[in-house]
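Practice record 12: protein with adenosine-5'-triphosphate.
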Amino acid sequence: MTTPMFEQYARLKAKLKDEILFFRMGDFYEMFYEDAQIASKVLGIALTTRSNGKTPVPMAGVPHHSVHAYLKKFIQAGYKVAICEQVEDPKQAKGVVKREIVRILTPGTLLEEELLEEKSSNFLLAIFLHKNTAGLSWLDISTGDFFATDLSASQLFDEVDKIAPKECILPTSFRKEEHRSLRQSLEQILDKNALTYLEDWHFDPTSSKRRLRELLGVKSLKGYGIQGKEVFLSCCGALIEYIESTQPQAKAHIKSIQKLQPSHYMQLDIATQRTLELVRTMRGNSKKFTLLHTIDRTQTPMGNRLLQHWLLHPLVDLSQIQRRQDAVCELFQNGHLCDQLQASLKSVYDVERLCSKISTQNATPRDLVSLRLSLEQLPQIHGILAQTKSCLLRSLYQDFDLLEDVHGLLEKAIHPRPPLHLQDGGVIQAGYHPPLDRLRQLAQQGQQWLQEYQRKEAARTNIPSLKVGFNNVFGYYIEITHAHAHKVPEDYVRKQTLKNAERYITPELKEFETQVLTAREKAIELEVQLFQQIRSEVAQQLRRLQKTAVILATLDCLQSLAKVAQEHRYHPPTLVSEPVLDIQEGRHPVLEQVVEEPFVPNDLKLHPRRRLLILTGPNMAGKSTFIRQVALICILAQMGSFVPAKSARIGVVDKLFTRLGSNDELYRGLSTFMVEMLETAQILNHATSQSLVLLDEVGRGTSTYDGISLAWAISEYVHNQLGCRCLFATHYHELTQLERQLPYAFNNQVAIQEWKDRILFLHKIQDGYANKSYGIHVAKLAGIPPKILHRAKQILKALEDHARLLSPQLSLFEGLFAEDSSSDAGGVEGGAKEPGASLSPLSSVQHQILEELQQLQPDHITPLEALQRIQKWHSALAQRENCPG
Ligand SMILES: Nc1ncnc2c1ncn2[C@@H]1O[C@H](COP(=O)(O)OP(=O)(O)OP(=O)(O)O)[C@@H](O)[C@H]1O
Ligand SMILES: [Mg+2]
């Protein structure tokens, strides 16, 4: 026989898919059956049983007041949790208390600050594919940020990595075999548990449009620039549906939807975002030692989140970049104003997340106080903005809403130090609502009456230690120690015996109790009502609050950029449209804060006639550092920031590509070299003449000749075909000959000083090229045993001697490239400086002869035939000698 409670449990559980059901029973959330077993493992709590009729059922429970800690553990372990509450007063329940599922917690639909990371967005992303287009829409319900975009399917993973969603919704058809590689790639970028599949019909564009219109409260989507974009409209619909299904009681709260146009931002592919360590480090995935961490002086969590967005979306429109830079410049120059702004922002809370909590009716009394304290800063900030001149700051000033009405309401209505829970009373300010004051007075007068009663009874009984107290079981009582037991009057009724005392009640005390307790209860009831009213009233002003939150976040980012520019001596870059890069005394923003010795600044000058830099230098010299710092400087410049350089003139970069270092992805079934080539292919297929390409030791992952050949051919292609700016750091000293081959290529090297058997790293970039790697020196520094070093030196010498002997052949080998480059040179402007001959090359004629020779079968030809062939080759070679190229 199943008990009615377990019947109710089974009914609710049947509505769920694979969520753990938290079943509220009094002060506990209980889990049963398999859920209880999982809970006992995941949460480390005791497994008990509860009987269902005659059958014992596994049970585990957590107290409601500390539920968040347990929820967090479940979510982190990849589970989803359904919360079931009692939705009627147990005292009034006939039979089993009514219960309902009020919320389903999933990683992408969290609202509770206890479960959220303060400084990260908590995006839920939906993806839909149609032919070669990917639709994406993503929403953070804790802030209301809502974005959508459509892009070519090949850019999908770059964008997903940037968004870094906590949960991702896909149509179930993605489970099919044909989508396996897409699914696997997503599982690598995200957590496997982060993928949630919804039936394909959730992505129906027609119903999606309707849902979106309803959510935005508009009749038409015209004004949003998203009409006709079915791929991401489909995603929006699925997203909204999912959110509503996880919080049936509250409507998703969103700011207006923003369409992100990939062409409005510098394109950063996934490898670039990761290897440049913009927001996370490669090792350890930490935030420390990232560019974001270095430039972050924001004072509010919403400012921090926006700064991250700016960093991952550098602008490409010159006027927009200038607008931001002008604002930063003004705050930089007017340090006093910037300090004031920073001080005010310090007292501002996470208004974005507060808005979400208010609109979903999750805001507590203390949340409203946080909102009031934040709004209190507005007049001061408004006053600061009034003194500014730059275009962006002026426009923020003009759009500024002081929200005096909301502030006034909160100040008048909510107590400045309310208790944690509404039920404790004391949330509403005295004077706000006279009937509440009267009830409170009644309860208050009760206190005086009690004191008076205690005094009177002590006198009547002649027991000075007589005390009136209160507990939840007996209500008010009189307590008398055993020593005075003989003096207790007859009208006292004994209720409880303690070790040292007895407790009594009297009719008079009971009557008082009824009066006071009802007054108190009524007061609390009234407070709850009033609080909900106030919260809804504030929620009515949501759009205005959100707008203010965005202004505050923007100001926070701008002041952060100004502050960091002051602290680290950054300078404003000049941005232009021509593809140039002229950096004087540039530094690596992150490394300069970390290295112990002074950081050595370096220059770079690139322009259309000097655009492929081949950078050589010993190990540890600073090649990788230099090319990374150039990338970071460009990103900073295009996000509107100052840059770590004495001066910089930067031609806007449309796409930044890097192929830096080797990151093994063995788990993806890809070898080091395969990853290297995949990333390089990505660059070669997508870069434009306005792009910046950074290559670090490309080709290193294979045999030397293969590596050099690839590196050489890639450089030629970048130079001739793409015609973009490119920095190539390499240990292949052969590549330094490209300077002679390609008109717009040039060499730089990183200087070192040799001293006795040692080398001194100067980290200074100079003209010229290096022809030694000093790898063995670096190995020595790293502590490789002397025996090995000695042996390595011997081998090196032998190899070098051998190479000298072979040098004629080597130069023949080099010639191969010259021939190819001249034949390829037609693509973009440029080509070989000294066509063909410059590299004593193996010409196509020579090549052909070698091939013929190889294919020849001496046993099958006559001596005459052999002689004829030799003559033919000889004359072909002679001809080439007379007419090079
Ligand atoms: N400009 C600089 N000023 C001060 N220290 C620097 C500078 N550049 C590099 N360094 C220091 O030298 C170290 C090595 O630099 P980096 O990794 O760039 O060398 P590399 O030339 O790429 O070496 P490898 O050929 O082994 O890859 C850095 O970690 C840093 O500590
Ligand atoms: Mg390096």
